[in-house]
Amino acid sequence: MHEVILKTEMPDIGTPRRGKVRDIYDLGEHLLLVVTDRVSAFDVVLPNGIPDKGRVLTLISLFWFKRMEGIIRNHIVATEIKDYPAELRKYARMLEGRSMLVKKARPMPVECIVRGYLSGSGWKDYKETGGICGIRLPEGLSESARLDEPVFTPSTKAEEGHDINISFDEMKGMVGEETALHLRDASMRIYEKARGIAEKKGIIIADTKMEFGELGGGLILIDELLTPDSSRFWSLANYRQGKGQDSFDKQIVRDYLLTLDWDKTPPGPELPAHIVEKTVERYREILRILTG
Predict the structure, then answer these.
(1) How far apart are CA 213 and CA 167, in angstroms?
(2) Rounded to the nearest 5°, which phi and psi values hold at 110?
């Protein structure tokens, strides 16, 4: 097992913009994305991380970016330390396997979510309204039901707290009709292709969120793609409609935290070793299944 990287420090490279999981360095023409082992739950970053999580997320993203090149370009410039600018190479130990040198794009102000199954906030919305984000669905569906056709349900990007689901018309108002149609089309094609690949390996992709950016007048895929942090992966063999499913992600962490007397505000509680180990194994398992 590699050392846990919770925070990257490269003083001569600059101060990164830190997200919940990523540290992003501005290198002028390009960005350096470093995926740390930080783990967040209920929008709070926890004090201890999940070993190898950053590497797993990076490898899974790279696996999918490669397979979607026929649908849309992505932001990757280099993933091997030897191909990075010279000043980064002395940080090889920290960056190896968990970083990407990427093109600088103008991020779209929306997250592109495709749902093939009724789960999470989609299930909650359906119970209350009979649809998701204003899209009517058949009556009488149960939790985790497979939808006849996947649905595209964009959301806003929140700097703090939760993203907010919006309708396709609201999205058109934000990015323009042509761009909105292009984003929806690309998202649906990526989901359909990924779903086919995953099902052959015994995995259901219940839903996923994608990020796009604008570069040189066209759209490209950015950030991460079809990872356990951005998607719900379920076991096809264990799938049973009518209840919540076990996910290949940090569900173990969330379930543990729900047993505590914690009000879901910072600081988050320290995770015990057995929860960390179980979560590590879950992330590695989905990496093995998907990428071999």
Answers:
(1) 20
(2) -130, 155
d(CA 243, CA 144): 6
> Residue 244, Cβ neighbours under 10 Å: how many?
13
Point out which residues pair with 176 in neighbouring strands: none
User: What confidence tens digit (pLDDT) does each residue in 180-237 have?
Assistant: 999 999 999 999 999 999 999 999 999 999 999 999 999 999 999 999 999 999 999 9
Do 55 and 2 form a contact (C-beta atoms < 8 A)?
Answer: yes
CB 84 within 8 A of CB 78: yes
The whole-chain average pLDDT of the chain stands at 96
Question: Where do the structural domains in the chain lie, given as residue ranges?
Answer: 1-104, 106-235
Interatomic CA distance for residues 253 and 39, integer angstroms:
9
| Both tokens assigned to 190 | 């990526």
CATH of 1-104 among 3.40.50.300, 3.30.200.20, 3.40.30.10, 3.30.700.20:
3.30.200.20
